[in-house]
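Complex 479.
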Amino acid sequence: MLEDSLLDEYEKKEKCGVFGIWGPKEAAQITYTGLFAQQHRGQESAGIAVTDGKDLNGHTGMGLVSQVFTPRMLREELAGTGAIGHVRYSTTGSSKLANAQPLLREFSLGPVAVAHNGNLINAQLLRKEYEAHGHIFQSTTDTEIIVHLLAKPSHASKADPLIHVLKHLQGAFSLLFLFPDRIEACRDPYGIRPLALGRTREGHWCVASETCAFDAIDAEYVRDIEPAEIVRIDDSGVSTRKYDVPAPELAQCMFEHVYFSNPASKIFGQNVHITREAMGRQLAREAPVKADFVMPMPDSGRSAALGFSKESKIDFEEGIVPNRFVGRTFILPGQAARDKAVAVKLNIIPDVVRDKRVVIVEDSVVRGTTTRSKMRAIRRAGAKEIHLRVSCPPIRHPCFYGIDFPTNQELIAYNRTVQEVADFLEVDSLAYLSLEGMAACMRGQPKDYCSACWSGHYKIPIDQPQSKFYFERDQLKMF
Ligand SMILES: O=P(O)(O)OC[C@H]1O[C@H](OP(=O)(O)OP(=O)(O)O)[C@H](O)[C@@H]1O
Ligand SMILES: NC(=O)CC[C@H](N)C(=O)O
Ligand code: SF4
Ligand SMILES: [Mg+2]
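Predicted structure with magnesium ion bound:
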C-alpha cells in the first residue's frame, strides 16, 4: 500500500553524520541541534552519548532526531559536559536499533562510545578472526569491530591504543570516540569522508561531518580534521597527533559535492553550492543546447541548473515543485519505496512546460528512479523537447566507501551507452558532465579525489567480497 511504504520511507533515509562538543553544561542539547542540521546525512536512526566526567550514558532510537529525543531526556538523562552524536544511513548492517550509533560499550579501560561515518572494507575479515577467538558481537555493522580492536589486551596495553587500532582499519572512516575525559576525532588516511573542527562563541570545541552544523549552533568553522590525523579535545583544549601518514593520493569523495552535502557546507575546503554552480557552467560549455528555459530537478539539481542557465544565458524557470515533507529519495531502502517516494515528491507544472523546449539539469542519475519517472511525466505534461543534462558523469561502478549502491546491476548507466540511457528515458537529448570537467571544478588536484563510481578506479583495492548484509544471520547462508 502506498501509505504504508511512505510511512516507512519517512523513517529511513540518507547517509551518516556525526557531531561532538566538549565543555558546555548543555552538551546533549547542542549535539541535538548539530545532528538536526545534518539530518540530510541520515534518517534511519539517531543517537547521543554523553560524559559526566566519570562515566558515559547514551540513548539511541529509530527515526529522525526529532522523533528519538525529548527535551527532558536531553536535559536530565543525557546531562553531561561532553557529547557525541550520530545520524545513520546504513551501509553495512540493516536498519535496526542494535545498529544505531553511537555504539556504547565497556572494556578493560572503561567505557567508550563510537560514531562512524564511512564504511570499512575489511570488517568481514577482522570480525571472522575475532569471532574465531570467541568475541561476541551485538550488532551487524562494520563499526562494531573497532571497539573489539580497542578491547584486545595487546592493543589496550599500548601507550596509545587508538593509534594502534586505527592502523588496522581499511576503507572510509571519519570517527568520533567519546571517553569519560575526552573526545577523539579521527579521519582515515585517504580523507574519504569529511570531518571538520569548529569552535563556539563561548570557546567550546566541536566537530561535525559538515560545517552547516556549526552554523546551526553559532560556532565558527576552524579547519578540517586532516587525513590520518587524530584530534583530541579535553579540558585542556585541543591537541593533535598523526596515527599514520596521509595516503600519497587522497580519495576525498567527489559525490559529497555532487549530491550529498548541504549546499551551505564547506566540504574539503570549498563551498558545495558554488562547486555545483561551477559544474553547471562547465556542463553548459560541454553540452550546449537550444531551449526556451533551464529547469532544475529539485532539490539538489538547483545549484548546477543555475550555473547552466548563467553560462548559456538561457532563462531559469521552476517547473517541478518538490513536496517539502518528502525527504531525499535516493537512498531509501528498496526500489518500490523509492519509486513511490519519487511519485509523491515531485509535481510537474504543466502550464510551465507545455509546448516548450526544456533543459532539465539534474545533479546525478544513479538508479534512474527520479529520471525514469519524471522525464515521462514532463512529456505527458506537454513539453515539446526534453534535453536532460546531468552535472556528473555516468555512474557505472559500485561504491564501497560509505554510499549505498554496492552492486553495478542496480545502476541505470551500467552496460548502457549514453544514447541507450537517453532512449530508455525517452528524452530528446542527454549529456553528462565529463570526469575531467567535474574534476576541474574541485579546489584540489584531481588525484586527491575518489571518482571510483564513475571511473572504476578504486584507490583502496576491493579484494574481499563486500555485502551490505554480510553480518546478518539469514544473509550469511548465501555465502
Ligand atoms: O537516479 P536516482 O536513483 O533517482 O538517484 C539520483 C537522484 O536522487 C537524488 O535526489 P534525492 O531525491 O535523493 O534528493 P534531493 O531532493 O536532494 O535532490 C539526486 O539528487 C537525484 O535526483
Ligand atoms: N553511512 C555511513 O557512514 C554508515 C556508517 C556505518 N558503516 C553503518 O552502516 O552504520
Ligand atoms: S565511489 Fe563514488 S560515492 Fe563512493 S567514495 Fe568514491 S566518489 Fe564517493
Ligand atoms: Mg535529486
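The first helix runs from residue 2 to 10.
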